[in-house]
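ok, trying the design again with the full structure, not the truncated one.
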C-alpha cells in the first residue's frame, strides 16, 4: 500500500516529530530565524516543514516588514483534538487506578 503524502491531512503532517516540535513552538508567533535557533536545525529544513504544516492549514503566517511570522492555527488542530479525545476515558481510567493504588493501606 502506498504511503499517503505528508500534505494530505493533518495526521500525516504531524507524523514527523520535527513538525510537532515546530507546532509547539508556534503556540507563540515566531519567525523562521527564531525556529532555526530554537530547534538547532538548518533553515531549509525548517522552511520545508513549515510548508507542509501550512499546506494542511496547521500553521498560518503574516508579514511584518521583511519578516514572515508564523503561528499555530488552533482551529485546524480541532480534528486532532477530537480524535484524541475519543481515547480520553482510557487516560482517566489509568489515573483512577494509580490513585486507588496510592491510597491502598
Amino acid at each position: 500500500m502506498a504511503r499517503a503524502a505528508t500534505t494530505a491531512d493533518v495526521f500525516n503532517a504531524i507524523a514527523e516529530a520535527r513538525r510537532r516540535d515546530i507546532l509547539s513552538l508556534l503556540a507563540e508567533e515566531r519567525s523562521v530565524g527564531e525556529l532555526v535557533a530554537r530547534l538547532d536545525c538548518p533553515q531549509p529544513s525548517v522552511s520545508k516543514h513549515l510548508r507542509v504544516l501550512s499546506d494542511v492549514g496547521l500553521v498560518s503566517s503574516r508579514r511584518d516588514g521583511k519578516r514572515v511570522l508564523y503561528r499555530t492555527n488552533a482551529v485546524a488542530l480541532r480534528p486532532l483534538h477530537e480524535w484524541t479525545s475519543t481515547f480520553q476515558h482510557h487516560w482517566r481510567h489509568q489515573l483512577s487506578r494509580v490513585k486507588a493504588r496510592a491510597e491502598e493501606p
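Keeping the full-length input from now on. The mean pLDDT is 88.
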